[in-house]
Structures are given as structure tokens and as C-alpha cells.
Amino acid sequence: MRKSQLAAGTLKNMTDVEREAIVNDESELNRFSDNASKSLVNQLHRGFSERFLRWRRRYIPFGGDNRRGHGSVKLSGPLVSGAAYCVSSCSMIIMNKIVLSSYNFNAGVSLMLYQNLISCLVVALLKLSGVVSVERFNWKLIRVWMPVNVIFVGMLISGMYSLKYINVAMVTILKNATNIITAIGELYMFRKRQNNKVWAAMFMMIISAISGGITDLTFNAVGYTWQTANCVLTASYSLTLRRVMDKAKQSTKSGSLNEVSMVLLNNLLSLPFGIILIILLGEWRYVIRTDVTQDAMFWVAATLSGFLGLAISFTSMWFLHQTGPTTYSLVGSLNKVPISLSGLVLFNVPLSLPNLFSILFGLFAGVVFARAKMS
Fold first, then answer.
1. Are the C-beta atoms of residues 155 and 233 closer than 8 Å to each other?
2. Which of 196, 237, 250, 275 is 20 to 30 Å from the Cα of 107, by its Cα?
3. Any idea what the Cα angle at residue 335 is, between residues 345 and 74, rounded to 5°?
4. Whole-model pTM?
5. Over the stretch 197-211, which tens digit does the pLDDT of each residue have?
């Protein structure tokens, strides 16, 4: 009690400056103690955080929510684009088979013209809306691209008529011949040699195609002729496109030609060819007189096939951008499996055990070919 009275008296006798100095000293002491406590809390928090991070890295593979999110985005890109490519490719072949066979539509050139017209209109709308960019065309570019387009039109027409007469499974197996013709063309045109695994896979494709044709219960000589022409034209298209590509880019003002511009150029230039062929072959009379053109569901199927044709172009470019040529070729070979099986189921194709074995062997040969190209 006496000590507190002395302290009060001493504080009373002090000057204002001395009292202010004591208050400042006390505030500094309090600040120091607060900083010390905060430092201790921060050290404890840092220690617990480091332990938690070590535990999370050990037991959670992606190391947290943010990294997990980025990983899922990187993983979902190729998966979504690959799935879109497979679905559009399968749907396009099956839809063409429905239009030509199920509706018994005997005007393949007219169907091609309608599909190409839809593709041009959709690309034009996308360009006007600013979704895609298209190179400005000129007569020099058109002259350079004309041989490619002639082969492109022949490839589409032959593919249409082969689907009309042959079942979907055999069409996909016979398409393996395109790889053989392309490899031979690369050897003579570009001096590109293939390894022994590739040639072995192509030999397997030849065996599967021959055995498939012999055991095909729905064999049609006209359809096989069209499919042979389609294989030659498809291989010629890829080889000619590779040779013309650089020259076509030099014919543009910007010095480049993106994939969307190629799609539009091909479909746009095919329109006058289609009109000329329809007049020469007399398809316009058939289209006017046939009853199937009065069926609304026929036009729904034909329009959908046009959208699917354009979807293949865009999804293939998207998938190729997300992955790479090797993965793209491998998925393209694997894609033949669901196409073949779905074609057998949907159209009730008469099938024998040897023919089924030939189809499965051809699908296996296509996968082996893609794997060999990757090595």
C-alpha cells in the first residue's frame, strides 16, 4: 500500500514530458510483446502449414484443388475432342448409309451437292459472326487448288455410291487399301520409305480385304468397283494436297491458308462441279420425280448428314490440335471398330463366321498399321 502511494506521489510530481516518456516506453513494450506474440503465432501457423502441405502432396496426387483443376482441364481437352471426332465420324457414315440405302435414294451427286451447300452456308455464317477467320480467295489460288478439288469431288461421289451397295463394315475394311496406295505414292513421289512393320501391317490389310470380299454374303461388284475407285481417289487427294499445300499458301495475300479456309474452298468449288454432273447424268429428273423427296424425314436425314460432314472437318482439326498426328491416326484406326459393329447391327447385314473373322482381322490390321507408323 505504501509502495503504491509513493508511486502515485512520484508520478504526480513528474513533469508532463517525463510522464509522456513513460507512456511511450509502455506502448513500445506492449508493441514489442504484441510483435513477439504475432511472430510466435506466425511460426506456429507456418509449421502447421508446411506439415499439411507435405501430407497433401503425399496422399493427394494432384497436390491441391488448383492443380487438380488444371490437370482435369488438360485431360478433358483431348478426351472431349477425341470423343467428338469419333461420334461425328461414325454418325456421318451411318447417316449416309441411311439416306442412300434405307431411303433408296439413287442420286449420290445430288446428296453431295446438298451437303457441300450446307457446309458453305454454315462456314459463311460462322465467318460473319466472327467465330472463324477465312482467307480471302483469288483466281490464282483457285487455279492452284482446282486439281485438288476435282479429286475431292470424285472421292465424295465414289464414297457415296460405295456405301449404297456395300455394308458399312466392309467399306471400313476396304478403306484400309487407301493406306497401302498412299504409302506406295509417298515412296515414288516423296521418296519416303516405310519400315518393315508398316509393310507387314499393309500385307495384313490386303489379306483381310481379299478374304472379306470372298466371304461377303452381300457381295456387289458395282459397289466394290466404286470402293476401289474411292481408295485410289482418297490416296490421290492426300498426296496431291500435300504437294499443292505450299504453292497454295504462296498464292494468298497473307501467305497462309488455315484449315477452315481449305474446308470452305473445297466445298465452294465443288458446287459448280456438282451442278454440271447432275445435269450430265440426268439426276435432276430423278430428284424431281422420286417420291422420297416428299418425305420430311428424308430431308432431316440429308440435312443432318451435311452438318455431320462439316462436323468431321472441325472436330478432326480440333482433335489434331489437342493431341498430335500419331494419336490422331491411332484413334482413326480404332474408330473403325464401332463403325463396323454398329453398321452390322443397325442394318441387319447377313454375316458368316469367316466374314466376321475377316472384318475383325482387318480392324486389327488397321491398329497394327497405326502403331507401326508411330514407331
1. yes
2. 237
3. 135
4. 0.69
5. 878 888 888 888 888
